[in-house]
Amino acid sequence: MFRQALRTFLGPKSVRTVSPEAVTWAYRLLLGREPSPAEVHRHADCADLDHLRRTLFGSREFRTRWRHLCGPSLTGFEPPLEIEDEVDQETLERLLLAVQNTWALLGRTEPHWSVISVENFKQSTFEQNREVFYQSGQENVELFLHLANRNGCFRDGVSEKNILEYGCGVGRITHALAQRFKQVYAYDISAPHLELARQFTSSLGLHNIHFRQISHPLDVGSFPSVDAFYTLIVLQHNPPPIIRLILSNLLKSLVPGGLAFFQLQTFQTGYTFSARDYLRSVEGRREPQIEMHVLPQSRVFDMIYEHNCKVLEVLDDPFTGYAAGDLSNTFLIQKR
Ligand SMILES: C[S@@+](CC[C@H](N)C(=O)[O-])C[C@H]1O[C@@H](n2cnc3c(N)ncnc32)[C@H](O)[C@@H]1O
After folding, report:
1. Ligand 1: which residues within 6 Å by Cβ?
2. pTM reported for the whole predicted model
3. Which of 100, 101, 102, 103 is the pocket-test mutation for ligand 1 (most atoms within 8 Å of CB)?
4. Which terminal residue of the chain, N or C, has fewer Cβ atoms less than 10 Å from its own Cβ?
5. Distances (CA, A) of 122 to 94, 107, 113, 236, 297
6. Cα–ligand 1 centroid distance for 90 (angstroms)
7. Range(s) within the chain of domains with CATH label 3.40.50.150
8. pLDDT tens across 143-176, in order?
9. Quick one: pLDDT at residue 287?
């Protein structure tokens, strides 16, 4: 598009072309892989090599893969965010219903892709990639246990512990938790996701998982007491008042000494949230959209202290792609 517009404006001879070979080598050097034919074709639209370089350096793929070359995603000079995160009960119900509509629809159409949005996990190609998908859940749990271990938690192991997983999706992480913990309480808002998680985990012969559906804000207030909870790439898809509702009830559910592992997006330059404006735009939307929301660190810390917990670690994590101006954090928290 851009090149066509330039060509119309300047005439065909004045626009330098980016050759397919240049695109191929740029991918090899910067992204460490071969481009697909579609990618070669797409970048032929770049006006020049400088444009190609900027596009690849700015891509989520480059920033995730070569994180150490990119520097921090925030400068610290970003403005404060205006976020409404406390609303009345009726508004909470409407917000949660909007979340449920989105995820139930995604669960009926592209359940695995909705969990990790890469082409390979679309229904048309999922079967060939099933193993990679579920193996990634094992790696997520290994990281959690490693962090627990290096902070001196669960020294006697976890085989006698119970854990709550919030937003279990299709069981990608749930099965790996169930293979290690005594009992898993697995919650999700979407019936189709839960059904796939049930099928997958029972195909592995795992019978220590209690699946539960969230249908109303009150369901979030009735968690069992647990030794640990875990939630990954879930809170970030919920409006801030829902994040607050979930997180404060999860923190409440921990037994003394219990451990929490949770991830959420804590900054996005330009993000604002007003429940009224949001509901106006979202209600009546036809196509489901995977939304990204934010709750700043200071508000997360307030909740942690309110629930008598202490911070063991806060990591910058790759779950929002390290885009400039965005920050996603993984928190390791312990109840006092
Ligand atoms: C991106 S998927 C991640 C699934 C799982 N955590 C994983 O990493 O494999 C997000 C999941 O969270 C669920 N979810 C989103 N908002 C939720 C909410 N407010 N309550 C319960 N589940 C929710 C969705 O239905 C979906 O299954």
Report:
1. 99, 103, 115, 167-169, 172-173, 187-190, 193, 214, 232-234, 237-238, 242
2. 0.86
3. 103
4. N
5. 30, 12, 5, 21, 33
6. 22
7. 82-335
8. 999 999 999 999 999 999 999 999 999 999 999 9
9. 85
Q: What's the CA-to-centroid distance between 193 and ligand 1, angstroms?
A: 9
Looking up tokens 């020294």 gives 155
Q: Whose CA is nearest to atom 20 of ligand 1?
A: 189
Nearest protein CA to atom 1 of ligand 1, as residue = 115
Extract the tokens encoding 128. 């060939």
Q: Which of 189, 195, 200 for a ligand 1 pocket mutation test, highest count of atoms within 8 Å of Cβ?
A: 189
Cβ neighbors of 217 (< 8 A, separation 6 or more) are: 89, 92, 93, 96, 245
- When pLDDT is averaged across residues 38-59 and rounded to a whole number, the result is 87
Question: pLDDT tens digits for 273-290?
Answer: 999 999 999 987 878 899
Average pLDDT estimate for 5-29 = 66
C-alpha 228 – ligand 1 centre gap (Å): 18
CATH number of 82-335: 3.40.50.150
